[in-house]
């Protein structure tokens, strides 16, 4: 963003006319050159330089733009809007001629802007190659293209920046409605949709410096067995490869690597981890591999060229930037399950089927998937012929209420109408204590998020539903976030802190969305008897988003009574990854869009695992528009916008499984809180009744330890409701040494 030295700018001006006479010929012949100035603005039309042949007519709005000379420096002279213009007020400035320029793939148009204020300024600008005046959103015959420039969260005061548009053919456009910009043009017109008189347009150029050369393919791709914890065997796959190079004369550099599995775009090694690993240690670990299966992998490199769309589930072949050819494919067959102490989800989770939620609760449970608790003594009058014992408590949409439902015997069928419906045992009720300035959750401008579990209690305190509540995006770190509901759903108590009162408390952003019970025996051995786990996954809380799940063991009944409002209970840290932008100390394959909604302790036949419900990205990831459009917010025609935020080619939900021995080592102080890594991931998408598991989102889980049943609520999983309604899935955890006679391969399909 630094300024060009004045003498360099002046030297460029001396040679403009002589150089550009040759330019028209060079462009027509598609020969190599650098840059050609179309207009270098001065303080008026007369002293502005227009050296490109007959491109000598400056066009600008007659009243709403002005020439400015901020400080006497020729590099800072130019044109901007007059003060006081509103969004949508007409304004434009540009250059045009009578002899067309043939803009081709490989060209780019470059605009230089100067911030004449002393403050940071954030702005967008756009260009048109056809429109002679101000943009009109209804005039689709004259397209406008949003310029790309790396200004982050603001352009510093008294600095310059170059913004650019890559001339695009049909393979390079930034959104589905975007027309290519290749071809003959008689003008370059510029507009800022949101006028900003502090930002001065000083120069318009074009060049053949666009990066259209892909990186070299990754070399020496290898696949080897791998493990992340002792006793798991070599149950995972680790890929390694040599770094690619970006060889073009105007290379933007390798930005990321894409991983393909069995011919399909599968995952990403993002830029920050690529840089963190370094060129001599590029690798990827596949956590989602079944025992005894053969997988084929390849890897490509993608550069940072600013054009194109990101691949989505409906358009997986799109790419943002230049993608290399694929590395030589490698194959690896994983061994059979080797661990005698860890749960094998592929061999031990037998799918029982699905359950539809009560029809009378649709308005409360549409889009609901946070907070699920199993109560073994619920629904005492159940019908054994059609129902299972116990009941489920659920948090409703946006965690506003809590309700109780029955558990009909699930059915495995591809037809949603074959599935039984749960019955409403206790209608949704709002029990949240109003302890947040009269509000029911610590609202910081985001959305409520919470968790729920049943614990039988101890030390003279009976059984309750334990809850956590926070703001998904920006929880107040001093807010008390934990409490209880009684089982009759007539009273809510709390809220209290975890780990101490502020400022020594554990942030609720790390504790309020995962709640489950662990083995009391294990808790006595490693956590001082604290058998209630609280935690969170990935995104929540201002300043403390975690690069992986966070888990703490607590026992709110430790003082023979529950903490009072504003009180606290002690905690033992079991899992805590890094925060912020630091690339180290993350969970394997962390991405911004990964998160979860619950956990469970799984144990049977001497095997155990700590399971976290999670959703993970598949394919490429980005921040921006969910439909994969790139930097086109001011385009005409307007892009087909999706949701704003983190995007990915696809999402899959499932279980992230940890070795309890690793968490015990954290509690004992022999491992750091970020050292444990999942020993595998088990996807749930194969059980979804939605098309291709579309729009996957994490859902809460609950475990019935008496009957070894795992319950999972799938966000909007019921295909019988086009506007969205959640549903339940159920698995039985089987002893690997004593299967039911059904082959394990048959346990994971309808």
Q: Can you tell me about this structure?
A:
- Helices cover 7% and strands 34% of the residues.
- With 750 residues, the protein is mostly beta strands.
- The protein has a domain at 6-207: Jelly Rolls, CATH 2.60.120.
- The longest helix has 14 residues, at 16-29.
- It starts with 5 loop residues before the first helix and ends in a 17-residue tail after the last strand.
- Residues 1-31 and 738-750 have low confidence and may be disordered.
Reconstruct the topology from this structure.
Layout: H1 6-14, H2 16-29, E1 35-40, E2 57-60, E3 65-68, E4 78-81, E5 93-103, E6 108-115, E7 126-128, E8 145-146, E9 160-166, E10 183-191, E11 199-207, E12 219-226, E13 236-242, E14 254-261, E15 264-269, H3 271-277, E16 283-286, E17 294-303, E18 330-333, H4 345-348, E19 349-356, H5 362-365, E20 372-375, E21 391-395, E22 402-405, E23 424-429, E24 448-455, E25 464-471, E26 482-485, E27 492-498, E28 514-517, H6 520-526, E29 532-537, E30 549-554, E31 568-569, E32 571-575, E33 595-604, E34 607-625, E35 644-658, H7 660-668, E36 680-683, E37 701-704, E38 709-714, E39 727-733
Stated plainly, the CATH topology of the domain at 6-207 is called Jelly Rolls
Helical content class: under 10%
Task: Give start-end ranges of low-pLDDT stretches.
Answer: 1-31, 738-750
| Radius of gyration, in angstroms, nearest whole number | 30 Å
Mean pLDDT equals 91
User: What's the architecture of the domain at 6-207, going by CATH?
Assistant: Sandwich
Give the terminus-to-terminus CA distance. 58 Å
Number of helices: 7
How are the strands of the largest sheet arranged?
2-5-10-7-8
Question: DSSP strand (E) fraction?
Answer: 25-35%
> In CATH's first tier, which class of the domain at 6-207 applies?
Mainly Beta
């Amino acid at each position: 963003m630094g300024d060009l030295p004045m003498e360099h700018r002046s030297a460029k001006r001396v040679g403009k006319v002589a150089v550009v006479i040759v330019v028209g010929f060079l462009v027509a012949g598609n020969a190599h050159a650098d840059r050609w100035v179309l207009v270098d603005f001065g303080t008026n039309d007369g002293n502005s330089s227009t050296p490109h042949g007959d491109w000598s007519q400056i066009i600008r709005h007659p009243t709403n733009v002005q020439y400015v000379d901020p400080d006497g420096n020729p590099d800072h002279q130019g044109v901007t809007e007059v003060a006081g213009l509103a969004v949508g007020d007409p304004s434009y400035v540009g250059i045009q001629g009578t002899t067309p320029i043939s803009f081709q793939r490989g060209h780019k148009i470059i605009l230089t802007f100067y911030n004449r204020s002393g403050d940071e300024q954030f702005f967008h600008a756009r260009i048109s190659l056809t429109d002679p005046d101000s943009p009109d959103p209804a005039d689709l015959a004259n397209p406008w293209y949003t310029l790309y420039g790396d200004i982050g969260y603001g352009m510093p005061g008294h600095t310059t920046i170059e913004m650019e548009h890559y001339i695009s053919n049909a393979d390079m456009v930034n959104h589905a409605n975007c027309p290519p910009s290749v071809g003959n043009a008689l003008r370059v017109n510029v507009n800022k949709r949101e006028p900003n008189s502090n930002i001065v347009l000083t120069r318009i150029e074009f060049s053949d410096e666009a990066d259209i050369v892909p990186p070299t393919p990754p070399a020496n791709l290898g696949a080897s067995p791998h493990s992340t914890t002792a006793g798991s065997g070599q149950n995972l796959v680790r890929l390694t490869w040599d770094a690619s190079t970006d060889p073009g004369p105007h290379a933007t550099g390798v930005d990321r690597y894409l991983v393909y599995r069995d011919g399909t775009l599968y995952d990403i090694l993002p830029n920050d981890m690529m840089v963190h690993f370094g060129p001599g240690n590029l690798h990827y670990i596949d956590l989602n591999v079944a025992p005894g299966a053969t997988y084929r992998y390849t890897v490509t490199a993608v550069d940072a060229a600013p054009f194109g769309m990101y691949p989505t589930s409906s358009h997986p072949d799109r790419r943002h930037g230049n993608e290399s050819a694929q590395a030589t494919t490698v194959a690896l067959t994983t061994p059979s399950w080797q661990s005698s102490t860890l749960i094998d989800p592929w061999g031990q989770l037998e799918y029982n089927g699905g359950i539809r939620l009560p029809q009378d609760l649709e308005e409360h449970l549409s889009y609901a998937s946070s907070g699920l608790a199993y109560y073994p003594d619920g629904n005492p009058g159940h019908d054994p012929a059609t129902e299972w014992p116990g009941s489920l408590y659920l948090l409703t949409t946006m965690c506003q209420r809590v309700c109780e439902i029955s558990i009909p015997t699930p059915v495995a069928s591809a037809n949603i109408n074959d599935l039984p419906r749960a019955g409403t045992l206790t209608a949704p009720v709002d029990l949240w204590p109003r302890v947040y300035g009269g509000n029911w959750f610590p609202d910081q401008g985001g959305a409520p998020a919470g968790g729920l579990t049943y614990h039988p209690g101890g030390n003279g305190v009976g059984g309750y539903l334990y809850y956590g509540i926070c703001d998904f995006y920006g929880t107040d770190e001093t807010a008390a976030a934990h409490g209880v509901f009684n089982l009759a759903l007539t009273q809510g108590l709390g809220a209290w802190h975890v780990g101490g009162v502020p400022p020594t408390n554990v942030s609720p952003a790390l504790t309020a969305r995962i709640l489950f019970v662990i083995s009391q025996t294990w808790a006595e051995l490693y956590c001082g008897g604290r058998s209630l786990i609280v935690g969170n996954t990935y995104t929540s809380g201002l300043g403390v988003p975690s690069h992986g799940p966070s888990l703490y063991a607590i026992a709110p009944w430790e003082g023979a009574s529950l903490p009072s409002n504003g009180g606290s209970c002690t905690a033992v840290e079991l899992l805590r990854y890094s925060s912020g932008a630091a690339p180290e100390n993350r969970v394997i394959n962390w991405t911004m869009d990964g998160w979860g909604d619950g956990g469970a302790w799984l144990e049977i036949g001497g095997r155990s695992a700590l399971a976290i419900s999670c959703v993970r990205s598949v394919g490429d990831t980005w921040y921006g528009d969910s439909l994969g459009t790139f930097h086109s917010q001011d385009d005409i025609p307007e892009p087909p916008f999706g949701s704003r935020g983190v995007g990915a080619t696809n999402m899959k939900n499932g279980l992230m499984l940890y070795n309890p021995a690793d968490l015990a080592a954290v509690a004992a102080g022999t491992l750091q809180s970020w050292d444990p890594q999942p020993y595998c991931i088990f996807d749930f998408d194969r059980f979804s009744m939605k098309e291709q598991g579309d729009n996957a989102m994490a859902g809460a889980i609950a475990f019935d330890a008496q009957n070894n049943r795992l319950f999972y609520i799938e966000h909007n999983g019921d295909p019988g409701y086009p506007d969205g309604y959640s549903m339940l899935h159920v698995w039985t955890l089987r002893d690997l040494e004593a299967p039911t006679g059904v082959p394990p391969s048959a346990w994971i399909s309808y």
